[in-house]
Recover the amino acids of this structure.
């Protein structure tokens, strides 16, 4: 079966998921992102790589934060950006979703950045559009959020250089996290030997070991000797539900405090995809402390998105 | 009485309605649109014709779809585009509408794209603004939607070249359609000899024959030998109301199926202004079939809007 | 204590309030604005001063009108503009406000235009951000709206040239007006000798005389011999409340009519920050009459905002 993310020459056609991305493609994105880091530090933060291209932010689910990262990345590549917040209530049928996409394609769109509450929606769109069009998944249901996974692995590589001897712990609500899924695929594809997931049974997917990770329910055991700690956001709707006793209990067991972080390596880095629930999954002393690379993640995220867009536009 | 759309040299000053547009002006817009078709196919889809101009999308009625077409057209002309969604509830008095317009004019606006639920609002604005300002009607109440009418006639001319021997059928809810009104005026102005409207009595305006069209209530009779079939959108609010028995009944009588389309000429084209109600006014087999030029309409619509804006900016 | 608006070289770092701005800084802004007046009259209304800079319109309180003035000013300076309407309900904690700001800063923002319902929010942000970032207050609670104050003083200087012998009356709801506060500070800083506030006791702040103004409750006395009359908007929520008997009563006592305006100097100018309540604080005959400079205020406002942004970007 054909890889839906690659064209007939094996080049990146769409970015839909980190799962299924060949190792070389993944490395090509990270290396290209390196070249964009300098641009965002320059006086004039623009390059003309996407000049005259039309990038549509097609958000069927509202996310100001994610939309902004793609908008700024596209504008720094000199693209024309059109923001579309499309209420899913007006597109109840799959047909209508594709009619909307056909319409925008007919306006000579070059790229769709798609956010959708339903897993798989970006795949449906990618299968449907003409071959000069490119789709980037900006988060689909619980399935994937590949640019987040890529910026996470970019950040780890930036700080740790050699991935071949790392221990990485992913902590918290892995079950509902498309971020975790994308990152775990990136880590295993690039040969990180020791990937751990830490969380209560109710927040870890059944059979998660099959992804090549070790499972820990005790955070103290899981963090021991780690190089990288990735904290996940605990969605508000989980906190008062049946899956968790309370936010306070969660923090006690799985919140990252300076004491728990001391179990990891002395030069461990702490990551979080944002937005943070301070005092729930992470203590402010850690979030704002010397191990935190949470804000650099955001900066690298712009470079990674510029890299993905410029690679797609060139293929 | 002075034509409100033309300046003292007889040049286009505002685009408010297809009705009242001189034949030469109409042809000038279509010919200019021809020159923009190539641009949207180019690698860099931009020309500097409106560089430094400020185009305001002044939408008193929400329409993401229409706003997007104008935004992309203006950006491809290198204009600065400002989107304003103005809730009509905050502008209850005509005075306030004009104060809003005066304010934006004082910011050195060059062009207003106006969408308003009240028929005539763009005329009020056009009468009020200074002579260096241009107004484009992007849909006012049931009255007019001239760029849609222009892109429809552009599409017909593109596929049929010679307009002087054509039969064009406009089918469905003509009564509530500003699209139908704009198109009928364009067709009669350019000398299309046979224009037909097809629909139930409750959805055709009284005295529609005075526009120079033939009236049919039986779709099979109306489609016979047609070169062009223009299907209109059936607004959802009409479907369960007193004007129609039901959407299913409407489809049976006036929905375009392959069987009914077979009554038209073998090379007939099928048009629809979008968004489509598949299974209500049009069958998917027709919408996606070989006669459909519904998506090319969208593509031509961008070129037509670029043409109108560049003509206005030059006058 | 350090002036939060100036950097270590005494140059403008943030624009937070007219209060506390040195006289030289204030004059530098007005003189720079002079140089931008010509640009907005040109065929191509753009200069490349902010090319490649990222300006974020960070609106925690919705204001289409104010957002538009900053957006158009930034685009005419060739900046990339990102609009963010952030519902304050999702940022209930000060921490979260700063996390949002940290995030956007990490995307290499250059400038934040901040509108917030809480007085002081732009100060909090300005204290928090790195030194290459600039904050402009676009209105915080009842506290300040400095670009409005600056455009008001710009307008007065434009029409009256010599400020050293002027009488300026500010009329209406001074109590709830951040516009009045900003303007009074600008007037006294630039040495206008006679500044008057006119209004009912319930709408004047206690101890307003300490700002260096004369207080009048009788509008006829207050307007006598004035060079400039600045009418304030009466917020709708004040009209039916306990502070005022009714809008009609207010108009009778404090609405600016041609008769009352006749008490001012024959060449007096009339200003209003907009949007106007015609028939409440101002009669249409005055608003649209020969003394009104209400629309030029808007035009000058764009030049003043371009001046502030270009000065900040250069420091």
């Amino acid at each position: 079966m054909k890889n839906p993310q690659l064209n007939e020459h094996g080049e990146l056609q769409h970015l839909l998921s980190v799962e299924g991305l060949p190792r070389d493609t993944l490395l090509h994105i990270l290396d290209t992102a390196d070249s964009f880091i300098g641009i965002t530090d320059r006086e004039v933060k623009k390059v003309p790589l996407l000049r005259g291209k039309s990038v549509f932010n097609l958000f069927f689910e509202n996310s100001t934060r994610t939309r902004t990262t793609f908008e700024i990345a596209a504008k720094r590549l000199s693209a024309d950006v059109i923001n579309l917040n499309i209420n899913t209530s007006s597109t109840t049928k799959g047909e209508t979703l594709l009619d909307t996409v056909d319409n925008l394609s007919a306006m000579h769109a070059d790229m769709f950045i798609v956010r959708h509450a339903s897993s798989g929606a970006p795949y449906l769109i990618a299968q449907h559009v003409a071959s000069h069009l490119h789709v980037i998944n900006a988060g689909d249901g619980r399935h994937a959020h590949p640019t987040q996974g890529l910026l996470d692995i970019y950040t780890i590589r930036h700080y740790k250089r050699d991935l071949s001897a790392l221990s990485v712990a992913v902590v918290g609500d892995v079950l509902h996290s498309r971020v975790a899924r994308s990152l775990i695929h990136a880590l295993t594809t690039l040969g990180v030997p020791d990937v751990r997931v830490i969380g209560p049974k109710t927040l870890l997917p059944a059979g998660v070991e099959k992804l090549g990770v070790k499972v820990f329910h005790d955070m103290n055991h899981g963090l021991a000797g780690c190089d990288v700690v990735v904290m996940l956001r605990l969605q508000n709707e989980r906190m008062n539900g049946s899956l968790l006793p309370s936010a306070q209990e969660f923090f006690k067991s799985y919140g990252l405090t300076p004491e728990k972080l001391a179990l990891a390596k002395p030069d461990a880095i702490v990551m979080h995809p944002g937005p943070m629930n301070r005092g729930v999954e992470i203590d402010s002393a850690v979030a704002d402390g010397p191990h935190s690379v949470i804000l650099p993640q955001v900066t690298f995220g712009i470079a990674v998105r510029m890299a993905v867009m410029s690679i797609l536009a060139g293929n």
